[in-house]
Amino acid sequence: MDKALGGVMNGSQSGARWTIVAMVFAAVMLNYVDRQILALLKPTLELQFKWSDGDYANMLSAFQVAAAVAFLGTGWFIDRVGLRLGFALGVGIWSLAGIAHAFAATVGGFIGARVVLGAAESVGTPAAVKSAATYFTQKERSIALGIGNTAPNVGAIITPLIIPAVAVAFGWEAAFLLAGGLGLVWVAIWFMIKVPAVAEDGVKPAPIRWLDLLRRRETAAIAIGKLLSDQVWFFMLAWLPDLFHRMFGLPQGTVGLPVALAYTMAAMGALSGGWLPTRMMARGWTVNRARKTTLLIYALLILPVTLVMWTTNAWAAALLLGLGLFAHQGFSTNLFGVATDVVPARAVGSTIGIAAFCGNLWSIVLIQLAAISLSHGWGYGPLLAICSVSYLIALGFIQLLIPVIRTVDDDGSGAIAMAH
After folding, report:
1. CA 308 to CA 294: how far, in whole Å?
2. What are the φ/ψ torsions at residue 89 (nearest 5 degrees)?
3. Among residues 83, 96, 85, 91, which one has the least CA distance to residue 19?
4. Prediction pTM value
5. 258-302 pLDDT, tens per residue?
6. How far is the CA of 55 from the CAs of 51, 58, 240, 366, 376, in angstroms?
7. Cα 222 to Cα 43, 214, 245, 296, 351, distances in angstroms
8. Cα angle vertex 261, ends 257, 264, to 5°?
9. Is the dihedral of CA 270, 274, 275, 279 positive or negative?
10. What is the CA radius of gyration of the chain?
11. How many Å apart are CA 153 and CA 146, to the nearest integer?
């Protein structure tokens, strides 16, 4: 692995690996543009198509179920065929599914488009994490993951700034057509890039026994961490525009502004999540101490998010929610970092796929609870309370299942090396 990385880092090949990371960044960013459009256009679409909160929650749940089930195969798929072909297929299919939203006219039509979108977009997470594990040394991975983990936030920032304006000027259909079209352009550029053979191969595919992965405490720790943190991320991604519209009366044209502020803070959290443990390790901290201290800091930072219910100003609420998203992304970056620390690179895609399956599937619970809470007049308070404590609980499970984080190498033997 080190020799391969050394080859990649020589001369022009060093630039090639950063080009790959940049393309992965762009794809994941577009991924979040596609998935967030529906949330931003909810006020317009529910008026036109007479949706209820339950209809909207069912569309979100269909997306999450499709993504969750697909995660069981896409991680394995990326591990087997590599980033080049696997990622291109994923981006191409999800872009076409995004375009299909523009032609939907019923709840069933939107659900069908969301199902295909969710299944194809599941390629993004294992591909992004695998790129860091394949092309970067252990010391560099936190920075690479931090940069990569800003992509969802950049997408979540750009989308509320652009999509409402496009919808107002050209109609809501144009928003879906624009985002999907950009994805197809990405696919064309991806195949035009010349990837050095060593970078393309990275980690040689080797037989991976899923039963071995499922038996590992490390897999369980990462899966539980994803389960408890992903529910917060997907809840906010889906319901934040509605929260600002419902609590502060913001119209379609301006609801995206505080949302963009919140996700700008989330992007800063992702970058800090890569920088902080790297800085700690540079000062001589062990990987275990640096990772877990960083996770604890972010778990504590999200606790004040429930104060949103006592604010009367949309921008104050955006700052509190932004702090929560800052904490989420810092936590998430280091959770991925733990995965690259304790899982051999050739099995990272499959491990992240399993964890993402758990996270996406469990997220449906909070999404549906949102519809129930709103329909009963309870508001967003109970949901924000769940968000505030999820990360401390997740860290408790990580400590229980991985008492000491020790890095592992992929020996290429086909066996899964144990971290402890």
Report:
1. 25
2. -65, -45
3. 83
4. 0.76
5. 989 998 998 899 889 888 998 999 999 999 999 999 999 999 999
6. 6, 5, 17, 15, 16
7. 36, 11, 35, 15, 8
8. 135
9. positive
10. 20
11. 11
